[in-house]
Write a structure and sequence with these properties.
9 helices; 6-stranded mixed beta sheet; single chain; globular; 10-stranded mixed beta sheet
């Protein structure tokens, strides 16, 4: 973050430039409805979305048994009671794979239990929820992303389904054999780890006494960079030697975290050149999103975290760039979520990512999974990220490198008002303030947010690379 920054700028690419952007796989269409196609009708136009507000494609982590909610939403209130049937439809997946050059595997129908019809009451714009139950079995492979394809048919009520919005695909990852860090209150603790001087395995040292769960749910490797290549004119992902060492040795530094149910996310930060997360043109954003996908796939990472800092934005913008704006930052997040809908897309609530507008008619809360506040900030983010549930908002972040800690009253508010995330930056068991300040803060988090006692195993991991 702002307090500790990357000091090494040795040029290096994660993935050879030649393989970048060869195809636009998993190009998920989550755009707005074009009502002009229905100009001849005054009937409400319907479309399907899930409980997180996602259209066309949703994602679920399956752990033995999972519930998924879907809804029928309308562009305007129903003139009469309306009913729509939803069904398991392999033809939807076949068409999707063909159109998008993907190869998702069909989730067996025997593992799917559909609820009753979708019902919209007169004068309403949204149906009651329809619950879909997914059940795991031994035949599912944790390394495969399965797909549950659904199609919709209007049975009554005078509704017209929007083109491309009557079908819905739920991507399914079976994690029933994997441990989870999920805790009873549902609050996610995010460790943004300054890996220039700290081993990320230190996040394994902290568990909760009663539940036995890891304290941390996500670890951000802070940070890779967005860089500009003057020779090729392309924007690319750059890793300093510390980040690259961790990625090259993922079996040692990353996999143990994931094996304990902790998500590992790559930070993306400006690096003092013309490129940044808030000034890419639409085409450049799409291309960079594809490289981010390639990086996450190559190193089996769980997503990316965007931080709009340390970029030297140029005005007027050179080719491939636009004037820095919240709209451009939102576009990059949107394109990244399209490129990898099953991965996490998070942002730091600071600078031009402190609030994000809609993109192509899609609210930012639908394509940003977590928004993590700047230090000590705790205002509600509903206006900053329209459509975002409180469970995705991270309040009252702490910065251990500067003795910037959260007050207990703020942590209590976070929990009581049902916000869903809290970030800690620069945890380091070898820093002078660890035994008193850092440990005290972590104990407070365990107590207030989880009604539990922190267990520290007193076996910290030193930085064991140069």
């Amino acid at each position: 973050m702002r307090s500790i920054f990357l000091k090494t700028y040795i040029l290096g690419l994660i993935i050879a430039t030649g393989i970048i952007f060869s195809a636009c796989n998993e190009n998920i269409e989550i755009g707005k409805i074009d009502e002009n196609k229905y100009a001849t009708t005054d009937k409400p136009i319907g479309y399907i979305l899930d409980g997180q507000g996602k259209r066309n494609v949703g994602f679920v982590e399956l752990r033995n048994k999972s519930q998924v909610e879907v809804y029928l939403a309308l562009t305007k209130a129903a003139k009469e009671d309306a009913v729509a049937a939803i069904k398991y439809d392999p033809a939807v997946l076949e068409a999707y794979n063909k159109a998008n050059n993907t190869n998702y595997i069909l989730l067996p129908q025997t593992l799917v239990t559909l609820g009753s019809d979708l019902k919209v009451a007169k004068e309403s714009k949204k149906s009651e929820k329809l619950e879909i139950t997914l059940t795991s079995n031994a035949s599912l492979d944790a390394n495969i992303t399965y797909a549950l394809p659904l199609s919709t048919q209007i049975k009554s009520g005078g509704i017209v389904m929007a083109e491309k919005e009557s079908n819905f695909i739920i991507l399914v990852k079976d994690l029933s054999k994997m441990p989870t860090s999920d805790k009873a209150t549902g609050i996610k603790i995010v460790s943004c780890m300054e890996v220039n001087d700290t081993n990320p395995l230190n996040n394994l040292c902290f568990t909760l006494k009663k539940s036995g769960k890891p304290l941390f749910d996500q670890v951000i490797l802070f940070s890779a960079n967005i860089n500009y290549n003057n020779e090729t004119g392309r924007v690319y992902v750059y890793n300093n030697p510390n980040v690259q060492h961790l990625l090259d040795n993922r079996e040692k530094y990353i996999k143990p975290l994931q094996d304990n149910g902790i998500k590992v996310i790559l930070g993306i930060l400006g690096n003092h050149d013309r490129s940044g997360v808030a000034n890419l043109s639409d085409a450049t954003a799409r291309a960079f999103a594809q490289e981010l996908k390639a990086v996450c796939d190559a190193y089996k990472l769980d997503g990316v975290f965007f931080d709009d800092e340390y970029s030297s934005y140029q005005m007027p913008p050179p080719p491939g760039f636009v004037n820095p704006s919240r709209q451009a930052a939102a576009r990059l997040c949107y394109e990244t979520k399209k490129a990898m809908p099953h991965k996490i897309v998070s942002v730091y609530v600071y600078s031009l990512t402190s609030s994000l507008p809609d993109v192509d008619g899609v609210q930012s809360g639908a394509f940003v999974d977590y928004a993590l506040h700047d230090y000590n900030q705790g205002y509600d983010l509903s206006d900053s990220f329209p459509g975002m549930p409180k469970s995705a908002m991270g309040l009252y972040s702490q910065e251990y490198g500067r003795n910037n800690f959260a007050y207990d009253v703020n942590l209590r508010r976070l929990r009581e008002e049902e916000y869903g995330a809290h970030m800690i930056f620069s945890l380091n068991p070898f820093r002078y303030n660890f035994k008193d300040a850092q440990l005290s803060s972590l104990r407070q988090v365990a107590d207030i947010l989880f009604d539990d006692e922190l267990v520290y195993n007193e076996k910290p991991y030193a930085k064991d690379w140069k």
